[in-house]
Design a protein that fits this description.
This protein has helices at about 5-15, 40-55, 90-100, 160-165, 175-180, and strands at about 25-35, 60-65, 80-85, 125, 145-155. By secondary structure, it is α+β, with helices and mostly antiparallel strands. It has a single domain (about 5-180), classed as 2-Layer Sandwich (50s Ribosomal Protein L5, Chain: A), CATH 3.30.1440. It has a five-stranded antiparallel sheet with strand order 2-3-1-5-4.
């Protein structure tokens, strides 16, 4: 299990910030699966719910459309996705499993793209298929779908957030690999 005190000390020394309250802090991780064109099939909704339940260890909720969009054949109130929010010990456990087991299972993985931070220092990325998570048995997958992950970081900017996530064990691409991409 990740010891957050050790992570705080590491971030404090790397960023040269003495005040503990000024350090960036991982608040929550939001996992999201968009169900898109599968919204009319309840079994596929159930599969998305089961996927997030197995990955996160807690029950996800359906997200509904806030307004109707005729171009997408979407009506207000229809389900459009499934999400779960992780905090505390479950969040740290997920980060540890993500960094040590899940990300290395991705084919041709050289690290996460460091350009995906927003101005507030939050980081969002997605995996294309849920099969990279070892908790999900390959035989139970009916439809492959991606999982989007958002790391919400408090008291931060992109530079501080990257230092925090690297201290938690999340691998990022090297600058030379980014330019070659």
């Amino acid at each position: 299990m990740i010891d957050y005190k050790t992570v705080e000390q590491s971030v404090s020394s790397k960023l040269d910030i003495a005040n503990r309250m000024s350090l960036p802090k991982l608040q929550k991780i939001v996992l999201n699966i968009g169900i898109g064109h599968n919204k009319t099939e309840p079994k596929l909704q159930e599969e998305a719910i089961n996927t997030l339940t197995v990955i996160s260890g807690q029950k996800p909720v359906l997200t509904n459309a806030k307004k109707s969009i005729s171009g997408f054949k979407l009506r207000e109130g229809e389900p459009v996705g499934v999400k779960v929010t992780l905090r505390g010990a479950k969040m740290l456990s997920f980060v540890e499993r993500l960094a040590s087991v899940t990300l290395p299972r991705i084919r041709d993985f050289h690290g996460l793209d460091p350009r995906k931070f927003d101005r507030q220092g939050n980081y969002t990325f997605a995996v294309k298929e849920q099969m990279v998570f070892p908790e999900i048995p390959y035989d139970n997958i009916k439809v492959a779908h991606g999982v989007e992950m958002t790391f919400s970081i408090k008291q931060s900017d992109p530079v501080k957030s990257r230092v925090l996530l690297e201290s938690l064990g999340i691998p990022f691409m090297k600058e030379s690999e980014i330019k070659a991409k």
